[in-house]
Amino acid sequence: MALESATNFKAAIATAAADITTAWSDTVLTEIAAVIRNNHHPLRQLKKLFLFNQTTGVLTSNDAYIDAAYAGNFPSVGSGHDKNAVIAVSLTTGTVEDAADKNIVLTFNNGITSFVGLSIGGTVTTPKAIAGVSIAGAVVTVTVDTSYIATDTITLSGTFYKGTDNVTLTDESITNNVT
Question: Would the pLDDT of 114 be above 60?
Fold first, then answer.
């Protein structure tokens, strides 16, 4: 699963910003505009993706923040109540290839720092055991003791961490590109 491009994401946020601005300016929904002005209200978290002008009530896309997030920099925004942005860790791809038929290569959207509870499964001709695991930024390579073949189905379970953020995979299907 590929990530949405920064350009497309910014366009979507800009559209959403215009729609929310219209909703907030609706006289029937005036209580929303009042709530969003409260610095402690959870709706203020929108400030990470949007810029809100409290004087005019206009919401716009925070392109600089989105660009920084896509570049892997997570800047603080606004008041001391805002925290650094966190991009949730997610699996982008998981494959086994011909050239390295003992390696399950997992690519995440963010660098991984550790993992727990790693296990492999699926329907395989020859049972597999994990022989080793290496982490290189956003790529985790799980090496098994015997090669996969074309007819093997592969699943993987475990929790992967980037700092305090994590993603738990449960019987995640791995693409088998072994021929």
Answer: yes
